[in-house]
User: Fold this.
Amino acid sequence: MRTTTKRARASAAVLLALFLSIGVAACGSSNDDSTSGEEGGGAIVSNPANGKVTLTIGSKNFPEQEILGEIYAQALKAAGYKVKSALNLGSETVAHKAVTSGQISGYPEYASTALTSFFGLEPEEVPADAQEAYEKAKAEFEKEDLTAFPPTPFASANAVGTLKKTAEKEGLKTISDLQGKSENLSLDGSPECRQRIDCLAGLEKYYGLKFKSFTPVDIGLRYKVLETGQADLSILFTTDAQLSAEKDKFVILEDDKHVFPAGNVIFVSKQSTVEKAGPDYERTIVQVQKGLSLPVVQELDARVELEKQSPAKAAASYLKEAGYTG
Amino acid sequence: MIGALLPPVLPASIGGAIEFIFEPQSSNVTGGKKVGGLDQVIELMLNQLEVTLFALVLATAIALPIGLYLGHRGVGELFAVGLGNVGRAVPELALIALMAAVIGVGLLNLTIALAVLGIPPILTNAFVGIRQVDRSTVDAARGMGMTEAEILFKVEMPLAVSTLMAGIRSATIAIVATATIGPIAGVLTLGDFIINNNVYGQNGLLAGGILVALLALALEFLLARLQRLLTSRGLRLSEA
Assistant:
């Protein structure tokens, strides 16, 4: 395939960047090793006292979530915990109930999803600032005896994407540019997008857009549908591997009315679990997510979605390359 | 793991599911718009029925003639029975993804993917049904001067009706149940209630399951009636 070499080059570049940043972090922490555990960087230290605690790490059932679930599960194992995983919880509703009822110890959730799906905020009420969104979500979670650990560096959001040539032909830069044109354009997206307010329903309500048609498809088919011209536009995720791997092919239209809130990932856990598991639980999770910038997550997504690696393998290589595990 | 997780996690109730079928319910993620209700149920059910019938007709049109021919000639047992076993292992999702690149997503794609599921039971049962017919009966028919086509249509097929129809009935159940994957291939079937848990909630999920089961039972009932009509009077022993 034509794109293979480009992909390989992109991977190499991202990994190089990763190594460099870890290298810098490692140098930094060697100067004051007393606080190295607190500030991230460096390898995870196994604590034998943690062996008495069994943790069940969950995730929702799409690649990005499974990778995150694996990263946290493997890191906690490295920290000495006994770890089980349940990485196929269908929806956020199921995952939320699983953690509330104590059947899983915790799982990664997007702060924006938590605020809109669990706590009834409108998409435009979700704070744009990651820290602010995190604190708001955490406060809400605490009412349910849950807590949330600080957010990841990367954020994920829905986005309207299209082929570069379509954008040029139709003169599209922002979603508002679709006004007056959307009636002749078809859209595809995940099945649940159709009715979600942070997806198609939001485009209709806040932008007043009507599309020629909406085709629900499997998340893994969206780019194929777009590429083969079966849909003119597609609802994509900003963390999608294809967006970094094929930059000159796909473009994202700017969400100028902020209908798609961006969400950083926060690890949600039961308060009693946090107390039982001790300080290494939060410390390990916060430590290993430090390297999860947008390009790194796109690269990990690419390994799973495009190169068909297992999420477990992609997670293991991330932890190893970033120096968290030996 | 997930099997152990599900029951306590799912606080759905039959009452809630029935309410969902008749009255639109509120949802957490739709920005106030209600979901479910009879109008949507009927729309999705008709879509499910439509793709089921298309797939069933396609599967029968392909599998029945081949099964009958091979059964009559008594050749290709390995093919007919082997295909039946292999066919059950075809991953539908992978098939849909594969065809998405060639013929796109939508009704055609889903129809073909579901027909692939229906072909093995129809073909295998047609082959086995025709082979099971008493050879001396066939020899007698041949001795009376019947042509091969007459033997097949007037002797073998009437005697094999119950086995042939059993194949079509298994295919129907497999197809109508699997048509729930429609929403990932561009067709809104009852699976929409099942797949989109965030939108429809647990009662919607249960309602989807109930509706698919009811649809399957209804089709099974209709096919049983059809089978009775197709059985020649002399063979309707049980109900004579």
About this structure: Chain B has a mean pLDDT of 90. The domain at 38-232 of chain B is CATH 1.10.3720.10 (MetI-like fold). Chain B touches chain A through 35 residues (CB under 8 Å).
